[in-house]
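User: Study the chain.
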Amino acid sequence: MSRFIDAPVALVWEAWTKPEHFVKWWTPRPWQTVAADMVLRPGGLFHTVMRSPEGKEFDNKGMFIDVQSERLIAFTDALDDDWRPTADAFFSALIYFEPEGEGTRYTAYALHKDEAGCKRHVDMGFHEGWGTALTQLQEVVAELKAGRA
């Protein structure tokens, strides 16, 4: 999934990496992200809590594999923050932030261990969900940009 965001990479990076901004866009509405903890370095914790419209909460824990400031974030749920393999590994993600003119090219890849995992993610609404979240990210970035105008 790739999209142009009309803001400099620094603002998109800020919206992704600061939990107070991240919780506003990460989960497609009407779902919510109600908590986010990030230790933004390779081997660092990446923890979110998502809440369904019915109020059920889902705890998600993983690890940052690679972090290159304003360039790349790679994370996985295959490893816990103590480098132990998780039982229910589902996917890894690569998020690229690239300058494009006055804006940012945001590209996200979801990698699965097999075809069945990929199909399961598609069946869960991956494209719609990540697309909606990306639109919400653009909204948060626009707010940040307006606040600095």
Notes: Helices lie at 9-17, 19-22, 115-123, 126-147. The first helix runs from residue 9 to 17. Residues 91 and 112 are 5 Å apart (CA to CA). The beta strands are 2-5, 32-38, 45-51, 57-68, 72-76, 91-100, 103-112.
